[in-house]
Amino acid sequence: KAGVTQTPRYLIKTRGQQVTLSCSPISGHRSVSWYQQTPGQGLQFLFEYFSETQRNKGNFPGRFSGRQFSNSRSEMNVSTLELGDSALYLCASSWTGGLNTEAFFGQGTRLTVV
Amino acid sequence: KQEVTQIPAALSVPEGENLVLNCSFTDSAIYNLQWFRQDPGKGLTSLLLIQSSQREQTSGRLNASLDKSSGRSTLYIAASQPGDSATYLCAVRITWNNNDMRFGAGTRLTVKP
After folding, report:
1. Which chain B residues are closer than 8 Å to A99 by Cβ?
2. Is B42–A56 a contact, with Cβ atoms under 8 angstroms apart?
3. For the segment B70-105, what is each residue's pLDDT rounded down to a tens digit?
4. Phi and psi (nearest 5°) for B82?
């Protein structure tokens, strides 16, 4: 069974540009969550999608957005990139996202903003 | 606001030792707790999931306990091996219906041959 797949693995962007990251969850999983990991702040929750609907959102500016498609694949978009957006972006998939389900993470996308 | 703390931040042990990693959280209203392993520059690998009603879970050489009332969890690693070297993260789920989890900063473990 394939795991969580994130593409691309690495990205270098310039300040002011926008970027789109992709996450394909484990087959059958309907919940996809996104996290940002930085050395200073650790892992922080961005948002979660379930059945194409955003169920919850963390404390990030509106420049961070996402969506989920009918096949449960999810994309995350960051507009007007800032240097501080440089981070490892991780997505997690789970069956329902409910309290009895385990979250499985992808390998992440390393975004560098220059 | 839920805060998760992991102690120690770093740990170095010789191969073969048994060791304990600690995780504490400030709000006992959690739905489950999950332990992860992260290798440098990589994603997170799920190790153990403990439901809020459970006291412990075991997988191979790993045993995780949960004391919700005191806000603590421990991850016990038996007979450590160099391949166990990684950062170990604990995360608590703070809502019942989605994957909003609060993570600790992690414990960086080095097992020396």
Report:
1. 31-32, 51-52, 93, 96-97
2. no
3. 999 999 999 999 999 999 999 998 877 667 889 999
4. -55, -30
